[in-house]
Design brief:
The complex is a heterodimer of chains A (382) and B (341). With 382 residues, chain A is α+β, with helices and mostly antiparallel strands. Chain A contains 13 helices and 18 strands. Chain B has a 4-stranded antiparallel β-sheet with strand order 1-2-4-3. Classes of the chains: A alpha+beta (382), B mainly alpha (341).
Chain lengths: 382, 341
């Protein structure tokens, strides 16, 4: 990022934190027990910071973090090196990112870092000037809907299966970039260690699920398997005789015989396993959930590459949530900026048309977003 | 004194002496420890010694006298404590836990629920399904120790914060949890009468062969820990750390293949495994030799991939793991990072 743009970025973040540090403080539980970390505007990461609750607002306004993180864990000594922090307990975090959801299909473009030429297909170097290429992923409406579907699936699993009271012990946030975070602080889950969290993660993702290990006829996978079998037509992997036998065994509750069928048919087993994993599992970033000392973006902080807010979403408002209007910090200012590529985008209820290599007038928040994403440069206030 | 629960009788205490509720009952029937050394009662001490020795010969599931059986648990615990050897504590807890498991399989639903309740697990029995509902967090605390893929939550019904499991599974969970109570019972003992101490010495002598093997394995463990293990992936480190508390089959297999690759000899690996509570020297040697290709199909087994380990719940990734697909890659990667630094 060029220096003048960096200054405007810093200014944008500074006013935001000046006006919103109180909201951020209120959103974090047990500030004194958390490790904080931040990236400054010189791209230097500062870690192992402890902040007292009463100093929090002043600290944020003074430091102006470009990216601001806190630990999911609560520590006795949050400012000591990792081995001496003394972990007490930790929130269970789930991270849904469109990068991980295969069905999401976000807009991907490739821009030459030298001549700003835009490519819509993957390329290793610029065809015009042979400059190096920067790949940019843009959240589009379709991928946003898909990510929200995953989020709803996750919320449902956490609530109806794991029994977490979502209104009391969980919060849902837009991540500020390309996904969602769910923070769970149900007291009985917070004490779980890494081993137990691996199990929770496996349950959520259905990773490595294999029908031949099923134990209970009332397991969700069997209910789903029955539905799949009822809908399936005769194909290479299954004939009608086996299909009706499977349904019959499910109805009679005969687990061992059911497992036997799949044990003997490798292709059918693989096919069903993949279907069940897709149907029942949620795409979450495994490491985030399993790591006890994970740093996660602070709620209501700004994302350093988008200028968007890590905004809380009410459980019943997931469908309506649209990041480019609901998570935007709108300063009311306008800006002129040179865009290499502006995708067709609905920003703060106004639609902007696809534009290549030209100056555009946009809200300051959109200018920040485009520059942060590497799609534009040269912001000027107007 | 707290009122005794109605279902706590001598038979219950004989079966589940580690149940905190059993202790109340026992206080009312037991004598001062020194009285058992009288001529009339010395057989109680001998009976208890045999119980302590079940570490070697396996537990008993039948007995004639409930009171004697119950008291023998506590005297055996004293003898075990007198050895002052933590490894013996674990072996004893393991043997007693196996005994509890078998007894639980014969028990009725409400009795199982009672015991679970006394051990702090609020069970929710679904009579309609004939299943035991255990709160997820309780389930995970115990089941995550087992690691066999069968224990993954998604193979059972999970509903509103409970995992619904069969009798065999709940018996396994309760008996595993019982180990913690048994170890606690042993460690809480502070004073050991000198006459009991003599029996502890006798027990140590009986177990000397086992203990020598452990000593040897401790040397190897120390060597692995100090010399090499900083380069080992977190999954292997975890296995080495937990070898004393009993590893699932897949973890043992992985550890053997990995250590063979690292150049450890079969003898060294076999003696390392002598720390596991259910150690059987012949079987271990046979299996290690089999894996190394010396026996059976003469196939040298490879170290399982990260994907396989993940499916067995044996993966505890750190930042370096993100970029690798096989545990052996971890070593070259971490060495490369170190060189770069």
């Amino acid at each position: 990022m060029k220096e003048p743009d960096k200054l405007i970025f810093r200014e944008f973040f500074k006013t935001y934190y000046f006006l919103n540090s109180k909201i951020i403080r209120r959103e974090i539980r047990e500030i004194a027990l958390r490790e904080f970390a931040y990236m400054d505007f010189n791209d230097v990461m500062h870690r192992h910071i402890a902040i007292k609750e009463e100093d929090f607002e002043n600290w944020v306004v003074e430091k102006i973090p470009r990216d601001f993180y806190h630990s999911s864990g609560y520590y006795l000594f949050p400012d000591k090196p990792m081995d001496n922090k003394m972990w007490i307990k930790g929130e269970v975090i789930f991270d849904i990112d469109i990068d991980h959801i295969t069905a999401c299909n976000p807009t991907k473009i490739w821009i030459c870092t030298n001549c700003d030429e835009v490519y819509f297909n993957s390329t290793k170097e610029c065809e015009i000037c042979h400059g190096s290429i920067n790949e940019v992923l843009i959240l589009n409406e379709y991928s946003c809907i898909k990510a929200k579907d995953e989020l709803k699936k996750l919320v449902n699993l956490l609530n109806s299966d794991l029994g977490i009271d979502m209104s009391k012990f969980a919060r849902i946030y837009f991540s500020g970039s390309r996904g969602f975070h769910v923070h769970v602080f149900d007291p009985s889950f917070m004490e779980l260690g890494q081993r137990e969290r691996v199990e929770i993660k496996d349950y959520i993702t259905y990773e490595m699920f294999d029908i031949t290990y099923i134990r209970s006829i009332t397991a969700k996978a069997i209910v789903e398997l029955k539905k799949i079998m009822e809908k399936m037509t005769e194909s290479e992997v299954i004939d009608d005789k086996i299909r009706s036998k499977i349904i019959d065994l499910i109805n009679k509750g005969k687990v061992s015989e059911l497992k036997g069928i799949f044990r003997r048919r490798k292709r059918l087993r693989e096919y069903v396993n993949i279907l069940l994993r897709q149907k029942l599992g949620v795409c979450v970033d495994s490491i985030v959930t399993v790591d006890l000392s994970r740093l996660i973006r602070v709620p209501y902080s700004l994302h350093g590459k988008t200028g968007l807010i890590k905004k809380r979403i009410e459980i019943d408002k997931i469908d309506e949530f649209y990041p480019f209007s609901d998570a935007v910090y709108n300063t009311g200012e306008k800006a002129k900026v040179f865009v290499k590529y502006l995708p067709n985008i609905l920003w703060l209820d106004r639609e902007y048309e696809e534009t290549f290599k030209s100056y555009v007038e946009v809200p300051m928040s959109l200018a920040i977003y485009l520059v942060g994403r590497g799609l534009a440069y040269g912001i000027k206030r107007i | 004194m707290r009122k005794l629960e109605e279902n706590i009788n001598s038979n219950w205490v004989a079966k589940y002496p580690f149940d905190p509720a059993s202790k109340q009952y026992l206080k009312t029937v037991s004598l001062d420890i020194n009285e058992y050394f009288s001529e009339d009662l010395i057989h109680v001490i001998d009976y208890s010694f045999t119980r302590a020795l079940s570490i070697r010969y396996g537990p008993k599931y039948e007995w004639e006298n409930d009171d004697l059986e119950a008291i023998s648990y506590f005297i055996a615990s004293l003898i075990i404590r007198g050895t002052e050897n933590r490894y013996i504590y674990y072996m004893y807890a393991d043997t007693e836990s196996k005994r509890a498991y078998k007894l639980l399989l014969r028990e009725e639903e409400d009795k199982i629920a009672n015991l679970a309740n006394h051990l702090g697990i609020p069970l929710n029995i679904s009579y309609e399904l004939g299943k035991y509902g255990i709160p997820i967090t309780y389930y995970l605390k115990v089941a995550s120790r087992f690691l066999s893929p069968h224990w993954k939550m998604y193979y059972n019904q999970v509903l509103r914060g409970y995992v619904y499991i069969e009798k065999r599974q709940i018996a396994r969970i309760i008996s595993e949890l019982a180990k913690d109570y048994i170890i606690d019972d042993i460690e809480k003992i502070t004073v050991i009468p000198s006459k009991i101490k003599q029996y502890s010495e006798k027990l140590l002598a009986e177990l000397s062969g086992v203990l020598r093997r452990i000593e040897k394995s401790t040397d190897i463990m120390d060597y692995i820990r100090t010399k090499e293990s900083k380069y080992y992936p977190p999954c292997i480190k975890w296995m080495i750390r937990n070898i004393g508390s009993g590893l699932p089959h897949m973890a043992r297999f992985t550890l053997v293949t990995f250590l063979l690759k690292m150049g450890y000899t079969i003898d060294e690996i076999v003696s390392l495994f002598s720390r596991t509570p259910d150690y059987n020297p012949e079987r271990t040697r046979y299996q290690v030799e089999h894996i190394s290709g010396l026996r059976g199909g003469r196939k040298v087994y490879a170290v399982p991939s990260c994907r396989t380990l993940k499916s067995y719940g044996l993966c505890f990734p750190d930042q370096i793991c993100i970029r690798i697909k096989h545990p052996l890659q971890y070593i070259s990667r971490i060495k490369r990072i170190e060189r770069a630094r």
